[in-house]
Every structure is written in structure tokens, then in C-alpha cells.
Amino acid sequence: MAAAPPLLQLSDIALTFGGEPLLEGVELSVSARERVCLVGRNGSGKSTLLKIAAGLIEPDHGGRFVQPGAVIRYLPQEPDLSGYATTLAYVEAGLGPTNDPHQARYLLEQLGLTGHEDPAALSGGEVRRAALAHVLAPSPDILLLDEPTNHLDLPAIEWLERTLAEQKGALVLISHDRRFLENLSRTTVWLDRGKARRVELGFGAFEAWRDERLEEEEVAQHKLDRKIMREEHWLRYGVTARRKRNIRRVAHLRALRQARREYRRAAGKAVVSAGEAEASGALVIEAKGIGKAFGARKIVEDFSTRIMRGDRIGIVGPNGSGKTTLVGLLTGALAPDKGEVRLGANLQMAALEQGRESLNPEWTLSEALTGGRGDTVTVGGERKHVVGYMRDFLFSPQQARSPLRVLSGGERGRLMLARALAKASNLLVLDEPTNDLDLEMLDVLEEMLGNYAGTVILISHDRDFLDRVVNAVLVPEGDGRWVEYAGGYGDMLAQRGADLAGRRASKEKAVPMPGATKADRPLPEPAPAKRRLKFHEKHALETLPKQMAALHARIRSLQEKLADPSLYARDRKAFTEATEALGAVQAELVAAEEKWLELEILREEIEGGQL
């Protein structure tokens, strides 16, 4: 049986911006019911390709074909609702003549809107909800979604995930939300250095495949470099070369050099580190019976907690539930109406705020990092040239004099991180740090937080990020009551038995209607996300053997010192100190060995597929 023709086909797409090729010979096809995720670094052309697919941008070269009658709807990163009196009018404008007009009201209601809202007065999250209703209402054949989870809270993200899983139309998704991509995608298109590579794997299996391809590429490039070196040596020193200049071999060397010039290496990896201050006291924050209300509305009621040095606390909940207020109370930025908060000794806090209003759009990138003072930035108490610090966050030297208004959302996110992490701290407070960051930058941020010696308080709607970073989650349970759950987001669901919208965590599988065709059947439930080692666990596995070896060496040194029979009589104080130190180091070694054994067993269980 012949495969059905694609609903959308992009062929040999090429586009150049500012003299640099952004897309070169890119192909993209989308057939009925396909679930495609489009991935790549910020600036790789994902959003541009989606706009070409939507017919909003003309490429320099290549063709776009859409099956006659196919309905396509596109969700941009920044929806424009101007010109509409209400959210309902905006959503109804997306309906076709044969669509059910009641669908507009139904979707707005599901997304927490009434339809009477003035678009000019909406928050970023409300704009996103209205735009989602606008593209979903006509039940299009193809949905093109650019960062659909931006500005949404967790209940809305989980609702959207379930709704898209039930859609009969095809999906093309761009998102930084790993869990969202893993649960919805069946095919991955990777935009890398102007080219597109398609693999019939969902995002959950893509990253391992990508890493294998990059390793193969590096091996091939190394072989090419060695071959060029051999040919250049022959050209300079070979007897045959000096005597008659083998034209064919010289031409071959020229071709090798050309291939080397045309090879575009993958962009370097970001180097993100936080400026760390001296360690805080063991107790970082203690709250006893605190409460906060605005009018009759209770935000926090009778809440108590102890946050210790090294804790990673995640705070989740619907928009408007009081997450930022709770953080303000815990950090001393807000005074509680009742109860007390005690901050530990030697606290130095650095904060990443969700809003970016503090960034003057007319500043240059260099001014934003240096405060307009010279060409150096102070990172953790040490001075560093601003261009070098920019490179750590994947900014080019040419961008140093660029005004902030020309930066993309992802670049602004990286800039805010760079500003926050430059400050020496032992307590990091991060409010939605993952907004607009690409997946590779998220990996680097997770690794940095895993290595950070201080304490982290994190507000996030990214489930995968929470699972990989935090060791406790605070959740609002209504009427100002907050409950702490051990572990990450998935652990919280298992303990709580329900998601943040109150739905039971374990769902019954959908049963297809009698007589339904294969195409009409709902997509199978995605497999539960496989347990992975968190960054701090991987880091511990890598560093604990060296730490244990150092402890063994320290024990041997102390034992040799104590083996001196005259030490006690000669220097009783030194003998006592060495004895106490030996006991402490031996206890530390036992703890390190137990931790390493626990993590090694966990790693074997994960690799064996038991988790």
C-alpha cells in the first residue's frame, strides 16, 4: 500500500541572514497525524523554518507545497491580539465556515478565560492561553506550535499535553520542555549548522542518537586532519613531489583543504558557573508558622520549614498561587503577617527574577554585564574581561556593542543568567530560569546547579528540570496551605496521588469507540519517562572515587604519624589532634563509600532497565 502524500512539504529551503547562511537545502515533510518535534540551538533557524512552513516568510530558495484544502494553524512565540475587542472575538476569528462556533467558548473555558477579557489588558500567560484556543478551535490538519508552553503554569501545560495527544491532526512542535517533547513527539528533525536531519525517533531517544552522530563526526574530522597533514608532508618533502609535482595528488590535497574549510563545527558548549561565596551556616532558612494574606485571600497560612545548606527546593503551582510571595517571605524580602523567619549565618544571595524589566533595551550587551563601567565584569569576586565572560554564555564578541532590543528571547534569558551568576553567592533564588533557553543551555544550567556548593530555591514549570535538579518540592494545597514533598516533581505526584489540577496521577487508558478506524484511535499513552541519573548524582559518581582515594591517603598519613611511639610523650596535643582527625576522616570515608555504592547500584539498575 502506497504511503499517503504529505500534507505539507518544504523542499531545498535556503535562507541567508546578514550574509550568513541560516538554512541550506533544508527538507521538511509532514503527513497526516505525524508528531514532529523541531530541535536545535537558539539561533539555528527553528522559528524561521516554522514561519516558512506557515507561509509567513519567503525563503531565498526552495519550494513549499500544501495539499489543497489542508488547514494549517500557526502559534508564534509572541501572539498578536491587537485589533480584537475580546478574547472570544479573537478565537472566533480563527474558525472556518464549517467549524463548530461553540468550540471557541469551550476552549477558552478550559484554559481559564471567560471570553470577555480585553486583549490589551492580558498577562503573558493569558495571551498564550487565548492564542492556543485560537489555533486549536478549528481542529486543523496541521498545528505548527512555537514554544506553546511558554508562560503557562503546570496545570495548563498538562492540560495542553493531554489535548494535543488527542488531536487527529499532525503536530510540529518547538519547545524547550523536555517532558512535553518526550510525551508528544514520534519524529525528530534536528536543525544543526544550516542543515536538517530527520530521525524517526521521539525526543526521548533523540539525544543519545545525536551524541553518537557528533562523536562519529569528530572522528571523521580527525581522520581528515591527519590525512591533510600526511599530504602536506608529502608535498613539502616527498622526492616525487619535488621532482615532478604529481598534479593529481596536489589537486586531491586542494580538495581536502576545501572540505576542511567548508566543515562547520558544532557551536561550542556554554561554560556556566556561579560565583560562589564562603559557605553559609548549616541552617540556611527556618520558618515557623508564617502567614501572609492580601485582603481576604490567604497566600501562605501557618507554614513552617527548615532549609539546610545544600538543599535544592522546587516551588510549583498554578499561576497566581503565591509562589513568588512564598519565596519573598523565605528570603526576607517580604515581612510575614504572622510567624517568624530566621536566616542563617553568612548568607549571600543571588536572585534571577522572572521579569526582564530591569534590562534597559538601549543598553549594549557589554553595558548590561559591566554596569557601564569599563570592559571587565566581576565574577565571584574575580575580574574577567567581558568578552570572555560573554563567550561562556555563547555570545559572540561582535555582540558586545549590540543593543539589548535586538536580542532574541533565548539571548535575553542567557544574559539574565550571566548577570545573576556573576554575583558571589551561597544561596541562589531562581524564578523561571528555563524560560526561552534551548535544551543544550538547560543541560549546562542543570550541570552547574548540580556542582553548586550552596543552596538553591527554584520556581519552575519545567517538570524534567525539576526532576533533575531538586530534592524537595513545595506545593500549594489551597487556602494558603503549602505542603513539602521529598524528591522531584515525579516523586511529588507519586506521593500526592494527583497532579496540580487535582486529576488522579494514574489515568485509565482511553478505549476506542466501537467501529473506529485505526486512524481515529487515540495515540497510545506515552511510556513513563525512564529514570535518569540527576546531574549531582552523575557528578558524585565521577568525583567520589577521587575523593575516597584522597581520604585513604589522608588516613595512611595520619596512621603513620600516630605510629611514632614517642609522639604522645613529645607532643600530647598533636597526638590528640591526629587521633581526632583520623576518626573524622575514617567516618567521612565510610559515608563516601556508602554514597558511592548506593549510586553505583542505582546506575546499574537504570542501565539494566529496572527503573
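The record above closes out task 2.4. Task 2.5 opens with a second protein, given below.
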Amino acid sequence: MMGEIGGFLKVHRAGFVKRDPAQRTSDYKQYFELLDEPHLREQGGRCMDCGVPFCHEGCPLGNLIPDFNDLVYRGDWREALKVLHSTNNFPEFTGLICPAPCESACVLDINDDAVAIEQIELAIVTRGFEEGWITPQIPIQRTGRTVAVVGSGPAGLAVAAELNTFGHTVTVYERDESPGGLLRYGVPDAKLEKWIIDRRLEVLAAEGIIFECNADIGAAISTDSLRERHDAVVIAIGSRVSRTLDAPGSDLEGVHPAMDYLYQRNRWVAGQEGRPTRPPEYEITAAGKNVVVVGGGDTGMDCISNAIREGATSTLMLDVYPELPPSGRPDATPWPLPPKRTLTTYALEEGGRREWNSQVIGLEGQDGRVVAAKARKVTGTSSRDLHPVPGSEFTLVADLVLVAIGFNHPEHSGPIDDFGVLVDARGNIKAPVYGTSMEGVYACGDARVGQSLVVTAIAEGRKCARMVDRYLGGTELAVWDTARDDGMHPLRDESETAGTSVDDLFVSEDDVDSKSPQS
């Protein structure tokens, strides 16, 4: 039996403890905190031991959610960490910024509030770091094979982490000044403080992964030299070509892709905290401006939140999606599907406004700079099904317009063009089973499947690592030390290592000097 018998009938869902919006908008610190331990255990007890845990299907990683919920309810946090890490390399990232499709698929969400899965996940890994249970696990033997991972977002980090545990020597190449990809530069500190990324990077580096930053593959480093250095290459560069606004005036000064703005703001915060950062070629600022955000997803909300912290005069989001019903579930996304929008977000709680069923049809300028946005009301279920409402046009003052309508595909200039790998009809790398059209070159994450979630990117990296390992000949090192209680790594089928001593495969951080890896 999992959880408290009938616990979901007696205990109501309790979410993260959010800081007061009036207070949190004066800084860039995380805007919420975890519940205390007794209440977290209560929340774990709400898991109803349903016959078919649809949360497994909702989670791209296949996290063993009822298992770790029950362990938290029983107070066995260390075992919960082992279970959580058995499927997820970076639960601190998913626990902070994943939109939690597992909760949308929770059976309780049919007619009640879902189990607080995301908060429980974050609480487990937070406890793991605080207690010192998460420590570097270093392969005691190396295969002699080397792999280059191009890109250090969640997919790149996941594939690197997995390949390293197989005994391969992995180098991650990142063109920006610090690893993390959009985790670092596309997500505001209010949602993901960057020391959290650095904490995990320190573990990965201690395990033997090499990070080379300011390494622009295809420019500073040629793809030919990359192939000469390594036995295999994984392209994990994300999907970074922003969709453009198809409206007159979109080329005016003051109209920018949302990610350009977020990159600058995250670098500004890094600079304030003394972290390495690059100065911008030109400044994008919302201070004292009327900001219009085009697009209603998480990226647009992040723009609004940042603009408020900068001191914008006003912030308004124009979303073509229809207003949500009180249940939060439109007909197009019945249970267990995750809705495309939520009733509210942290940015709206902080003072941002959202206008449903609204489409930008043009931008007006003065002396080459945007001064107004023309819009109209529309009907339809998504951006692909829009019908204008006659006579509904309106005009908004707009000093800064941030376009947050998604991404088309990965950048083709650089690794994709230089390697000459094929792309599919959508412009993503064509890699049906992670292998591209070029032998020894693989792809994973958004570069392969298109823009998606952080949890999908991690799952992509984990799966890709197995294909790369197979290409390199496989290894007997593909096992985790299940006898240890550090909770750091995924479990493997014991049959994979029959006759092999687990203790001989890994060396603790304290023993690095006395047991150096052997090729």
C-alpha cells in the first residue's frame, strides 16, 4: 500500500510557499520556498495508490512517482532520492522549472487537485544536497573512447553524465561563457538561481566531465578537428531560431525576440553577482517602458516578470489562446493531457496582465522606433486556428515589444551545416534513433525533436547516451553502485554486470588521488 489510506480525502493539496509579490519583485531571488517536512510528508501521503499511475505516462522520464511519494510520506528521504535519481539526472532542474505534465496526468486531477509531485521532487533533491548524500561517483576504469557533446543545456548535460558513467571520456563544448544553455540564460533567477546549476556542474566535473566554454563549434573550432579529437559527437544545441512576428512593423527598433531580452537580463544579474558574463552588443531594457509581450507561454511570462523587476511602466501579454474555463482545462486538453495555459502564473501575480484571444496585426513606429501595437480579437483554439472578430481592432502604446511565440528549429549555421547532417521537414536534425546521417554523429534534445520541455530534454539525453555507447562498442561499466546509499545515480539491471564487483567500478571523490582512472 502506498501513501496514507484515504489521505487524498483528508488532506488538501498545498503548493509552494510563495513570497509576497510586492516584496519579491524588488530582487531576483527565487520567488517561492518549500513546505516544511511535516507538510511535505502529508502531501506525499495524498498519493492514492491508483491502479494505473498515469503520472508515469505524463512524465517523459518515466519517474517512479508513486514510489518516491510514498517514501517521503514514510520519512525515508534517502531512499526516495535513490528512486528519484534512478530515472532523472537533474531533479533540481525539473523540480524548479518543469510545467509538471505528471501532475496533469495524476488520477486525482480528474475531479480534485493533483498530488504536489513537483514540490516533492524538489524537496527530495534539496534534502539530498543539504545532507551531503549527493557526491561525485567516478568510474574507476575508462574505456579509452572519447565523446564530444556540443551544447550544455539539459540534453547535453544528461547525455554527458550518462556517457561518463559508462567510462567514456566526455568533453562538453559550450559557445557561451558558462555551461547551462537556456537553463542559465533563458530562465530568470527568480525561477532558477544559477548557483543551483553551478552546484550540479561541480559534481559533473568532479566525476570527470570536461567543460570547454567560449567554444563555438564550426567557427573557433572546426567540425573536422572535433572529429579528429573524438570517437563520437553528440549535437545538443537546442532549438534557437526564434519564430518571427508576421506583421507590418516587426522590423522596427524596439521589437526583439524574447530570448534576446532574457539572455541580456540573465547576464545582467550574473554581472551583479560577480559571475562571468559577456557585455551586450546593444541594450534591451524595459525600464520606464510600456512593454507588450506577444505570446502566452512560459517564455512570455518570464519576460513580463523581468520587465516588472526592471521597473517597466506597464506590462501586457497578448495571447491568441481563448480564456480558460474555471477548471483550467479547455475541451482541447482533457485529462490526462497537460493544458497549454494555466489560470495564473507567478508573473501575473506580480502585476502583469494577460489579454486572451488577442492577435497582433501590426506595429507602428516613429523615427524608426516602435510606439504602438495594433491588435484584434480572434476566435479559435490555438495559433493554428484563428478567425478575426470583425470590428474588434484596438491599439496599445508600446515602447518595447517582445516576441515570445516559440522557435522554428536549431541554428543550421555551425555544427549542422559543417557536419552536413540531414534535417527533416521542420528543420530539425534528422536522427530517428538519435544517429544522424553521418556515422558517429548523434543528436538529441530540442535540436532533434523541436522545442520542448526541460524534462523531455533530459530524457532525450539519457536515451541518446545508450545509442552512442552501443556505437562505441558498449561497456561493462554501465552499472550503478546500488549498494551505496548516496542516491546519486540511476539503477541498472543487475544482469548487465553479472560476475562484476560493483565496488570495483566506482571510486569515491576522497579516493581519486589513490585510484586514478585507467584507460
